[in-house]
Automatic annotation (TrEMBL):
Keywords, comma-separated and alphabetical: DNA-binding, Transcription, Transcription regulation
Species of provenance: Chiayiivirga flava
Domain of life: Bacteria
Ribosomal protein found in the keyword field: no
Official protein name in the record: DNA-binding transcriptional LysR family regulator
Magnesium recorded as keyword: no
GO biological process, one term: DNA-templated transcription
Amino acid sequence: MTLRPDWLPALAAFETAARHQNFAHAAEELHLTASAVSHHVRKLESRLGVALFQRHARGVSLTAEGRQLADAAGSALADMESVLSDLRAADAERNRVRITTLHSWTHSWLLPRLPAFAALHPRIQLTVDTEVALTRFDQGGPDLGIRHGQGHWPGLTAHHLMGDTLFPVASPQFPGIAQVRTPAQIAALPLVSDLARQGWADWFRAADVHGAHLDERYVFSDSTAAMNAAAHGLGVALARERIVTPYLAGHRLVPLPGPRLKTRFEYFVVYPSHRRLRPAARCFVDWLLSLERE
């Protein structure tokens, strides 16, 4: 006997009724009436030439033939549900982009722009890892990364994303800050530092301030923490333009006199050279690169 597509509604009604051992409960699950479920079951019984349920005053119960069909139908549906779940997971994975990136850059530059990406690409899902250690791009690892350097990492393709500049900032409430007119005056103030590869010594050299004793009173491993420390009035921080912009826009920090020093290290988007980017990851890379071309 060939299983034709027009059997499927009756089989679905039977499988549900068999699980519940009750036509009314099956009807509720299927959004049908109990009489419609009963009609489907009788139609199936007629086609098969066997009784699938015993009907009695207290309700219904499966016959031996009904139990055999119920076991087969339940097993088939479970197999189909497993396959459907795998297909849904595979579709979600195709639209998942895993990114390893820098905490400060993510917090200050990327996050304010992500709503625009989400509006353009609502199906793409992002997983963002901001651990300090450089992540290995192994199978199952991140699709791409944002790195700060000179653009050369073995085994990685690197696209230049953006440059940066360094300049001093402080809270507008820092005592006497309004009277600071020269870089030499900044050298006499408490300084806030991070662990970047260019720091205050480089900036004062560019500002032609030599021989000053620098009071680097607070040192943070993260640039965002350094910006927050300056915003709370602990001292003057050497800011990176890409990190400090939200603080300047919110008037939590103000720029101080002196040059804007171009950084030796810049931002790059990177991914394994041996692995082709999946479409969703390529879409994210293209979006990032387009921002700096605008």
